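batch_manifest entry 22 of 60
target: ABC transporter ATP-binding protein
source organism: Virgibacillus pantothenticus
requested by: lab member K.T.
priority: normal
notes from requester: please return tokens only, no post-processing; we will run our own comparison against the previous entry in this batch. if the run fails, retry once and flag.
--- input ---
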Amino acid sequence: MSEVILEVKNLTKEYKGQGFEVKALKNISFKINKGEFVVIMGTSGSGKSTLLNILSALDAPSSGTIKLNGELQEKLFKEPNASFYRQKNIGFVFQAYNLLKDLTVEDNIVIPLILQNMNREMIDERLEEILNVLGLTKWRKHRPTQLSGGQQQRVAIGRAIISQPPIILADEPTGNLDFNTSNEVLESLYEMKNRFNQTVLLVTHDPTVANYGDRVLFFHDGEIVGEYECRSENDLESILNIFKKITERSKIQ
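--- output ---
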């Protein structure tokens, strides 16, 4: 029986200002199981990144609820609760890598463990495993500027998963990479997810990237307008067809 790790119910986000009001999210509801790889796919401005910001407690919703492991997160968006929640539950992978350029590969990866005051022996043990699995041992003393884009993104993945958070949020993680490098990075992310039984929620507008997911949620104009469960070798074609219809709908509007 699948275990629900994250449940979002009637999530709404409105931005208001003088003379304008924008609904970035409109009563979004979905559930994600532990260990699942879920892709959020939609056109630009459909609310994908807004959702990630809320799930990571970087922004607060206008209304709606979030449950983590069945527990309602009522005080999630107030400090210091938000910072504690991120440190304990969330790993981030960004399109721009966000590595510290003056630190080595290994120092960038272990930052979350240092912030948690983990003992050095445990840090070194986890670091060796991460470097080995991600194929970064040879570059452990290199700095980000000495690495390729794909290598930098693998470092970012290592940093995101080393504290073994239950949820990984990835915002367009292959947006700056070529096709082959993107596949390598996605395979690394998938391998690490399986190794640590983590849940991945990945945002993309690329159907090829979406094909790596167990399930795809299609966003348009702040709403979930479709869902697809990946099961066969024909998944990419099906994802492309659904996304094409969403894109055409966007152009009409």
